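Subject: Interface between my chains keeps coming out wrong

I've been trying for a while to get a sensible model of this assembly. When I model each chain on its own everything looks fine, but I need the whole thing in one frame so I can look at the contacts. Pasting all components below, labels as-is. Any help appreciated, I'm running out of ideas.
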Amino acid sequence: MTLLIKKRFIIAVVCWLAAVSINYADRLAYPLEFKEEIRFVLQKEVVEILSLGHRGLAADILFIQTIIHSGSLVWKPLTYQFDSEWSYRMMDTVTSIDPRYLTAYLFSGMGLVHGPKDVHLARPILERGMTNFPQNWELPFWIGYHYYVYLEDYEKAGEYFWRASQYPEAPDTFLSLMLSSLKKGGRNEMAILVLKRLIDTTDNEKVIQVYRKQIVRLENLEMLQKAADYYIQSRGREPADLNRLVAEGFMSAIPDDPMGKKYIWDAEKNRVTITE
Amino acid sequence: MVIIFSVLMGAGVFVLTWAVGQEAAPELFLAVYMDILEFTLLIALGLLFYTLGLSFPLNAFLCLAVFVLGHSFDEAILSFIAIGRFGSPWHKTFIEIVSYLFPNFDIFNFRLDIVHGAPIEIKKIIYAKTYWFFYVAAVLTVSALVYNRKDI
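Reply #2:
Try treating it as a single job with all components included. I did that and got this:
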């Protein structure tokens, strides 16, 4: 090794050590701290111009920004809250400039929903996804899931689960969830169809027996509901109890529940239910 | 080119904030200046990779990797401090040591301070500038060393 090379090598090492020391001193003088990130949403038209035709790339960059904001909340202090307004405006831009970005639609429905408020923000994006991907079962499934879990609107949840289940690629794994929402939402006829489909998914005789009993119960509920509706239509008032339907000739008898429960008129829900 | 584009972009943002926000923010040019320092350090590293005889795609990939890495250490350390339950203290120490060895691009990041209107101390600017000077000097010296050995 010549003297010149040695000299240069020493200079390089000394410079590098100096840089490392300065970095260390800087961190001692200015300890690392959390800072609120800069968040703004560019208009879709501006993003389109700035992307210079690379819409997919621009959508990717905005999508990653949103993921980073959402994901970093896992380790940031609780004072840093999820900015749903900003996140969903970003996702709206992402899916507008790249309408075929399925992952972005799904992330809007899965990763970004933190509460009931987000459900309403996510829905237009998922609905747009359903228009652009008419064969995708996941998008209606997630809307249904939000209605079920966050809004407790079982009727709506059941509707969306039902839509999701109609696609050929939809798995049977969410049938139980769909059944639960349909039953809670009073959609007995749909629930019966789901139970019939569930019977096809199992060979277990005991489970099939339970499903069959549930079908009978739902058929009874449906029959009673129809009679009660007819009663309300004719009398202009709700029945005080289900025995009124028999007493006033709307039914010959109240059927027995296959699982030993009693059918009752729930004045609050305005429909026939079973005792808990 | 980097300097021209950075200055043009800075000027554009300056004019926009002036026109839309009704407020001139000359401190934006400090952020632009720091960005230029950052990019020149990255170019120096690219030059080092070039002297090592790396192909263009590999060189570009390494530059991108170093850029991402250099911007991730602060956040990585903060996440170790914040989470606590993930990883052991050894992980944090390891990340801290590595962050000192690799180029720290976050030292040039004055953007958040400027946007949040936080006061910027001269000492902090001096740290960034001297860091840039010594790191670039080290990288260029190594590059020259490698290049000269190739000639021999």
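Reply #3:
Confirming on my end. The first helix of chain A runs from residue 3 to 29.
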